[in-house]
Design goal:
By secondary structure, chain A is of the alpha+beta class. Helix content of chain A is about 25%, strand content about 35%. In chain A, strands 7, 8, 9, 10 and 11 form a 5-stranded antiparallel beta sheet that branches. A 4-stranded antiparallel beta sheet of chain A has the order 4-5-3-6, with helices on one face. A two-stranded antiparallel ribbon of chain A has the order 1-2. The radius of gyration of chain B is 25 Å and the shape is globular. The chains are: A alpha+beta, B alpha/beta.
């Protein structure tokens, strides 16, 4: 084959001393540093119109952002919906997710909520109806209540942080869990601060 | 002049004015009015059932229409029109297959940030969701490859939506947008006149970079010992080539471009290192690897540029100027992020520089690399014609503002390596998406955007065959374009990779038979030339250029010719191979 070009071979060339990691960040060659993934809660105000959910979920999927939950619902303003998106990514991935989300035309604003943010999730847990009293006792322990009781099943409603719901679901395991449905996290910042008065 | 005559004249003037401002009565007329308001000059498109009302409204408009052979061609022609003119290129297609055929061109425009607006017909809103004839979820299909896709659902607002899509395609980081137009909406009655193009409220366009950040970046660059500028396609998009040149000349900093940035800096200037990356020059790749401070403007650090990011400019502080905040630290960490328009930010940096970097030694080193790694090739008498020679001879005889379009593959690399580019908007190619077949329709869009400039399209035999039908359009419109097919009877770049990385197992890369492109050209009504010998290169180029209309040179080149230098995918730019032996050593 032809097309060769003149010049010193690769091993005869000047070489730089440094190196970058896979995230494109310069590193000390001796001690490689990479960002570990962490959980981030993003709250986005978006225009309340058809197709927005598909646009947002499509963005997260095609850019391979690791999404844990996504909730969406109306707000105090009829034209605006609010999405709460929980992702698990290294810091550069979280930054990318925020910026890419902000770029979507229907997106009004994107904020990463502080770790002490109020976060709640709703879960409905349907278990066997054989021991309704015991089920009630466990439900009370987690601040929940039975919302539907039949001869063969009890459905319990719970709200709380993701960790609390995780623990509750585990506790209900003893009653033969038939079905679980969880809404994913909804979150609001503590105190008077709102996304609207961000600037 | 009698009073009566004067009155008649006034009446006439008034009636002409009224004619120009005929009120809109349908959604379709509102769509066309919005395009007129925006200043659209041409539409590239293909007719069809669901888009017919829009075409009917175009019948009365001064906007020109170019009927393309295939919707993909319409999208590429619009893309090239956008690159050359700087304004959005417009393409039309009907619903279903018409719309899906546009997708490649939209994805291409999205990757290269080219301004394009696509208007697609759609089945009437009552039929949407019923799997109606020629129904496709066009918004769903195109959303991932546009800045935004609109679904119009009201004749009263459709014109403003088109205006918004135009503004969105044009402003900030340019890119493609689409408006899907159900037939009942375009046929629907309205008397609402669309206003001028206005970007959506939720879309922010950063203007000036923060002064303090600019100062820090300027201080870092001024303190550098081995500075380079890396100029991407964003420099051209922002009309910042003059600002870039002023900066480089004043502070004597060597300039490397990316492939989309080709033309923003004159390649015949001693500070030019041409372009870096997988098949970039040896000297650009040496400089980009060994620099200690890089001023990168309007580039997204694509993997074909960076190679492996672990070895990309590993000693460099990176100053990254971009209008899209999401490009900052996406692939390569920016030490000094500057979010803003390339032209404005370069001017800010120019003023903020405390002094020129003390880089005499570095500039000497850079010139040494230019001498050590010349872009040379051999032309032995006993081997077939070398493609590089054809490109160089063509470059020698054409004016500086000649526009070069290409398809994708080996020919594209030779056209970018061996043509000398000195002006912005003269290099029209498919970079990020790597769309074979881009060239033939792109040349049509480029020629209409710049009718007074010469247009040459280098294509490969494989690439040309993908969109060759657009030659019929070039003939119909009598566009003076010279197509040069660098014909090696193979998908050459794939063949090269098979030889290098797949033990020479040439699966599906060689064509056992290929049409004679000179005869094919004649069948289309264009002029055809066949070129096989060095002796005929100049005269064939001259004859093709002199022919007033589209011509095709079928240049039979050495099928064994490979593209070098080469950085293998994910490799180290500083270890670029100059031969197959080098590749084996890596």
């Amino acid at each position: 084959m032809t097309g060769e070009m003149p010049g010193p071979a690769p091993d005869e060339r000047m070489r730089p001393a440094g190196r970058r990691n896979t995230q494109g960040i310069r590193i000390d060659p001796e001690a490689e540093v990479t960002h570990e993934p962490r959980q981030a809660v993003l709250s986005a105000l978006v225009e309340h119109e058809p197709g927005v959910l598909a646009e947002v979920s499509g963005l997260f999927s095609r850019r391979q952002f690791n999404i844990e939950s996504l909730t969406v619902g109306p707000t105090e303003d009829d034209d605006v919906a609010r999405m709460t998106i929980v992702i698990e990514e290294p810091q550069p991935g979280i930054e990318q997710a925020k910026k890419q989300l902000q770029k979507l035309v229907p997106t009004i604003s994107v904020t990463e909520l502080a770790p002490e943010t109020t976060r709640r999730e709703l879960a409905l847990i349907k278990v066997s109806g054989e021991k309704p009293d015991d089920v009630n006792a466990v439900a009370e322990m987690y601040g929940g209540q039975a919302v539907d009781v039949t001869a063969d099943s009890v459905t319990v409603e719970l709200t709380g942080s993701q960790q609390k719901i995780d623990a509750a679901v585990e506790a209900f395991d003893q009653f033969d869990v038939h079905e679980v449905v969880r809404t994913g996290t909804a979150a609001l910042e503590r105190g008077g601060h709102t996304l609207e008065n961000d600037d | 002049m009698s009073e009566r005559a004067s009155v008649q004249q006034d009446d006439q003037a008034e009636s002409e004015a009224t004619e120009a401002q005929e009120p809109v009565t349908t959604g379709a007329q509102s769509v066309i009015r919005a395009l007129e308001n925006a200043g659209a000059e041409y539409v590239f498109g293909v007719q069809g059932g669901a888009i017919m009302p829009v075409y009917d409204a175009l019948y009365d408009s001064d906007i020109g229409h170019v009927t393309m052979a295939h919707e993909q061609g319409a999208s590429h022609a619009a893309d090239a029109y956008g690159i050359v003119s700087g304004e959005p290129g417009v393409c039309f297609a009907t619903s279903g297959p018409g719309a899906t055929n546009l997708v490649t061109g939209l994805a291409d425009a999205n990757m290269d940030s080219d301004p394009v607006i696509a208007l697609t017909g759609q089945v009437p809103t009552d039929f949407v969701g019923n799997d109606a004839f020629q129904e496709t979820d066009t918004v769903g299909v195109t959303q991932p490859v546009t800045k935004h896709s609109y679904f119009a659902d009201d004749a009263d607002t459709v014109g403003d939506e088109v205006g918004e899509a135009w503004a969105l395609a044009n402003e900030g980081r340019q890119g493609p947008t689409l408006v899907d137009l159900p037939k009942d909406v375009t046929k629907g009655e309205t008397d609402v006149e669309p206003s001028g193009p206005e970007k959506p409220d939720t879309y922010d366009v950063p203007e000036e970079a923060d002064d303090e950040n600019v100062q820090e970046a300027a201080d870092a660059l001024a303190a550098a010992e081995k500075p380079v500028m890396l100029a991407g396609g964003g420099v051209i998009k922002a009309n910042a080539s003059d600002a870039l040149r002023d900066f480089a000349f004043e502070y004597e900093i060597p300039v490397i471009t990316t492939m989309p940035g080709i033309g923003c800096f004159p390649e015949d200037h001693e500070l030019s290192l041409e372009w870096a990356g997988m098949h970039g020059t040896g000297y650009a790749n040496m400089a980009i690897t060994n620099t200690d401070c890089m001023l990168a403007i309007g580039t997204r650090f694509d993997d074909r540029l960076t190679g492996g990011v672990d070895t990309f400019a590993p000693d460099a502080d990176i100053i990254h100027v971009d209008i899209d905040p999401a490009e900052i630290s996406k692939n390569v960490h920016a030490d000094y992020p500057l979010i803003g328009d390339a032209r404005d930010t370069l001017r800010q940096l120019y003023d903020a520089m405390p002094a020129a970097p003390d880089a005499d030694g570095w500039r000497t080193q850079v010139q040494k690399w230019k001498a050590e790694y010349p872009m040379d090739y051999s032309t032995p008498d006993d081997e077939p014609l070398k493609p590089q020679y054809v490109v160089e001879r063509f470059s020698d005889v054409t004016p500086d503002d000649t526009i070069v379009c290409t398809g994708v593959g080996q020919h594209q690399m030779w056209a970018s390596q061996f043509w000398e580019y000195t002006e912005p908007r003269t290099w029209v190619s498919s970079h990020g998406l790597g769309t074979m077949g881009y060239g033939a329709p792109a040349a049509i869009g480029a020629k209409l955007a710049a009718p007074d400039q010469e247009v040459v399209c280098f294509d490969g035999d494989g690439s040309f065959l993908m969109t060759v039908q657009e030659l019929s359009v070039a003939v119909r419109e009598n566009l003076d374009i010279t197509y040069v097919i660098l014909n090696n009877e193979a998908v050459g770049m794939v063949r090269q990779w098979q030889d290098a990385f797949h033990e020479g197992r040439r699966m599906a890369s060689e064509y056992p038979w290929i049409p004679a492109f000179d005869k094919l050209a004649e069948a289309f009504g264009a002029r055809g030339f066949r070129l096989e010998d060095y002796d005929n290169v100049e005269e064939t180029i001259q004859a093709a250029r002199e022919y007033d209309g589209p011509s095709v040179i079928d240049a039979i080149i050495d099928p064994a010719e490979n593209v070098y230098p080469m950085v293998p995918s994910g490799g180290d730019n500083g270890l670029f191979a100059l031969s197959e032996q080098h590749l084996e050593q890596l």
